[in-house]
């Protein structure tokens, strides 16, 4: 761990401090009303990454405090129902591994076991891809790859004897096979195997648009999985290829002026579309982490720099208290359900646009940690030169790119 980075006034530290001060209890914020929500896992994975790279135990304590509200001594999870077969409910399980390892408390292992048991019985398509939820039958959503795959892989590596890894990678292969658009290389938000949902094309089963955050979830899932996946795993080269292909497909739609992405990725010129913070942060995270892992080559540094500069300039504002605000987040978007969400352009731009949505803040925090690690001499600076000054100099210097 890099203890010197703890002293540096970086975007990641400023964002984490803002979250802790503004949201001492994540489950009481953003309208969650105490429910077991995947949003917490997005934020807390950022805290876990920051803790690992700073050694600051306050960040680990924050993770533990948030999860201890939900995890009983017997491993039961407050507000969680396995029988819902909701892949979103798996996401927070990623935090159980570090909690169990660091504290030795069995309740975290038992909670991980409970979530893994859901995947044992989770309904699947005819080819073996997990349904997004029981209430969304025969459907693959890009979102679900982030929610389930990295947890599934880490569980198998840590507690499952390294068995069944091909079932994890199969989720990506099937998702790309059925959602990828041959013309653009982009992935549609979702696919219905039965081709009966009101939102899907009756010939292809595909939803009608490329939603920015769903693509963000997908590339985040890829880098998080590649970080854990043994290099000799048969499908590892395919996942690296998939990461390169998906990010390459996104590049033509990076807004030329701002360097970030639109809510509906390929419709930047359409009235009502807007530059969206969570998707842009997720894409930046995937680029930065992909470079660090060696899954992306050095040519990706320039688009990464443009993206990170754009996120800071387009979305980030500092309050009078010194807190970091992340603006222009889509609050939520989905398909079908009780609201009969139809996946049209008009639908995606009609969802509320909010500040400091946890999914966006969490993705931004994760992107900040990875971007700062990618900087020259990251975390090594002297007392006179910290990460924040290097970042500001770097962002200013990007104007000539």
From TrEMBL:
Chain coiled-coil ranges: none
UniProt entry tagged with the keyword Hydrolase: yes
GO molecular function: hydrolase activity
Keyword line: Hydrolase
Pfam short name (any one): Glyco_hydro_88
Region (Disordered): 380-401
Entries under InterPro entries matching the protein: 6-hairpin_glycosidase_sf, 6hp_glycosidase-like_sf, Glyco_hydro_88, PolySaccharide_Degr_Enz
Record protein name field: Glycosyl hydrolase
Native organism taxonomy: Bacteria, Bacillati, Bacillota, Bacilli, Bacillales
